[in-house]
Amino acid sequence: MNKVEVIHTPALLPLYSLNDKVVVVIDILRATTTMCVAFNTGVNKILPVASPDECLMFKEFDFIIAAERNAEKVPGFDMGNSPFEYENPFLAGKNIAFTTTNGTKAIKMAKAMNPNCILIGSFLNITALCNRIKESGKDLVLLCSGWKDKYNLEDTLFAGAVIHQQLSSAYEMHDDAALSAYFLFEQHQHDLEAVVRKSSHAKRFTLLHLQTDDVKFCLQQDTITLVPEMEGEFLVNKTATQIAG
Amino acid sequence: MNKVEVIHTPALLPLYSLNDKVVVVIDILRATTTMCVAFNTGVNKILPVASPDECLMFKEFDFIIAAERNAEKVPGFDMGNSPFEYENPFLAGKNIAFTTTNGTKAIKMAKAMNPNCILIGSFLNITALCNRIKESGKDLVLLCSGWKDKYNLEDTLFAGAVIHQQLSSAYEMHDDAALSAYFLFEQHQHDLEAVVRKSSHAKRFTLLHLQTDDVKFCLQQDTITLVPEMEGEFLVNKTATQIAG
Fold it and tell me: Using a CB-CB distance cutoff of 8 angstroms, which residues of chain A are in contact with residue B188?
C-alpha cells in the first residue's frame, strides 16, 4: 500500500525525503489555484521564480511577469495573484514568470529535493489531481505552502480533502500530520467556506478590501480537469494540445 | 485581550518571538506528563539536559540520572521516561538530571529565547496550569514538542484542550495553528484515548511492548494540582513546601 505524508509548511521540508515520491504543492489562497486557472485559460508555460527582482529579469524574454507579496500585486508587474485575473483569454498561449509569497517558494524547494514529480493542486482540480496521483503508483507527499513558513488552515484542509475524499482506501496515512489533516477535513467538509473565512489569510484579504471574492472562488470543486506539472524549470499542462506561443 | 499561539514543533520556533510571553512546553507522551508526576511525588529539582552523555556527567553530583531515546530507557541510566517510574516515593527530595528525545530539547530551545516564564503542561495538571496562565496576564505560546521535529497528534490535542476548555473566552487565537488545535480537540474531546492510540507515538509504544499503559495514564485529567516551572536552569515546583534534599 502506498503511503501519504503531509508537510504543514516548507520550513519542515528538510526533515523529509522526497526521493521517488509524487509531491503535490498546495497554496489554496491563492497561487496553486491561480496556476490551475491560468492553464485552463490556455497559458503555455509558467516559470516559478523566487523573488520579484528575479521575475523582472524575464520581462525582456517575452514573459508576462506576475508578482505577489503579502497578498498584493507588486507595483510594476503585469499581474498579481488573483485567480480572476487569469481568466483573461488574452493569456492563451502566453508564458508567465511568476513569484508569490509562499507557493512558488514551496515549488522551488521541492524541486531541489529531486522528487519523482511535482504536481499542482487546488480544489478546482482535485479529482483530476487524485486520478493522476493514483495512476503514479508512488508514495505521496502533500506539501502545504503555509504563510511565511507558518502553518495555515486552508492548505491543510485541502490536504485532508485529498486523503479523505479520494485516497483513504488506497493510501496509508504515514504520520500524525496526515491524520490531523484528515480529521480537520472530516470535521469541516460541510462548512469549508465558513472555516476558511476564519483563517488568518482570509482575514488578510478582508483587510485589503479585495475587489473579488477570492475565498469563494478558490473553494469551488472540480471546475478544472487538468493538472499542472513541473517539467524541468517550468510548470506545464502535459494534457494540453500545444498552442503556439 | 491576550493572544495565544500554538507552535506545532520546535523546528518552527525560530519563526516566533517568545519575548515576555508565557511558554507552555507540551510533551504528553511522555516527558511533561512524567515531570508533573515527579514533582507530585516530591522531587526537588529537575535539570533538563540535551543529551545522554551530558546527563551522565551529573551522576557524580548526586543527581538521579534519567534518559530516554526513541521511547526507551537508555542503558546505564537510573531511570527512563515512563510516568509510572516517577511515582516511587524513594524520589522525594531527590534531584534529577533528565534528557528525552523531544521534551527536554523543546524546554532548552524555549529557554534560549528568553520568554517571561516556561511552564510544564500535561492533562494531569491542566486546570492548575490554566489558572497559572490566566494569573500571568501575558500572551501565551503553547509549544508542542512533537516527534523529532515533526508534528504529533497528542501534543496538538492538548494545546487544543487548553484553549477549548479553559481559555477560549479570555484569549484570542492569534494564528491558524491555534485554530487548528482548537478544532482538533473540539472534534475529539469525547474520544481522546481512541484518537491518541491512532497516533504514531502510541503505535511506537505498542511495538515496544511497554509493560504499563502509559497512553491511558497520560490522558488522566486533573490528578495533579502543581505546575512545574523553569527557574534558572532547573525545573522546580514553586508551590511546594521545600523538602530537604
Answer: 183
Give me the interface pTM, i.e. the ipTM: 0.90
Report residue B155: phi and psi, to 5°.
-70, -40
| pLDDT per residue as tens digits for the range B6-47 | 999 999 999 999 999 999 999 999 999 999 999 999 999 999
> Could you tell me the sign of the dihedral formed by the alpha carbons of A223, A225, A230, A236, in that order?
negative
Structural domains present in chain A: 2-30+102-236 (3.90.1560.10)
Query: What's the rounded Cα separation, in Å, for the pair A184 and A154?
Result: 10
| CA B176 – CA A198 distance, rounded (Å) | 9
The rounded distance, in Å, linking the Cα atoms of A102 and A104 is 6
Record: contact B150-A200, CB cut-off 8 A: no
CB pairs under 8 A between A and B: 76
B150 in contact with chain A, both atoms CB, cutoff 8 A: yes
Chain A residues in contact with B201 (beta carbon < 8 A) = 176
Cell of B224: 495533579
- Between CA A67 and CA A77 the distance in angstroms is 6
For residue A185, the number of C-alpha atoms closer than 13 Å in the C-beta half-sphere is 21
Q: pLDDT digits over B72-115, tens only? A: 999 999 999 999 999 999 999 999 999 999 999 999 999 999 99
DSSP per residue, A109-155: HHHTT-BSEEEEE-GGGHHHHHHHHHHHTS-EEEEE-TBTTB--HHH
Of residues B195, B99, B97, the one with CA closest to residue B152: B195
Where do we find the cell 490556455? A42
Nearest to B11 among A11, A183, A186 (CB): A11
Query: How many Cβ atoms sit within 10 Å of the Cβ of residue A213?
Result: 11
Pick among B145, B176, B179, B200 to test the A interface (most A CBs inside 10 A): B176
Chain B segment 213-242 residues within 8 A of A by beta carbon are none
